[in-house]
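User: Quick sanity check before I run a bigger batch. Here is a single chain. Can you write out its predicted 3D structure?
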Amino acid sequence: MNLRRGNTLIGLMVAMAIVILATLFFVTGGKILGGKVEERPDGKGETMIGKSIYKAKDTQCRSNLGQVRQGIGIATDPVENTFPQSIEETRLGATFYKCPVGGEAYVYDPTTGQVNCPHAGHEKY
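Assistant: Done. Predicted structure follows.
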């Protein structure tokens, strides 16, 4: 008598159930198991994969702002202590002057040399 056939069928069914539950978990963003899902201020990224993608874009926005700020520091006139008149004077490239999440142009104040992202949730960047 071969008992291994029953074990393989049960093992296959358990494996299929795990795959189905994992798929539902990632597609629904953890809501299927009653998990608490943090909402983004901009409302983007409803699934776990979408949240991961937008988290990476948030990090890219922080990096862009850091590089623009360094470019402003380099372009600042040390003798007269004047900042560049426009953000483009940093000569980093057009992709560095807007938020990768929402596409909004960064806000630059030439009197203070401060640059910020206007996208919802990026106020502290």
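The chain is about 40% helix and 5% strand.

User: Great, the batch can go ahead then.
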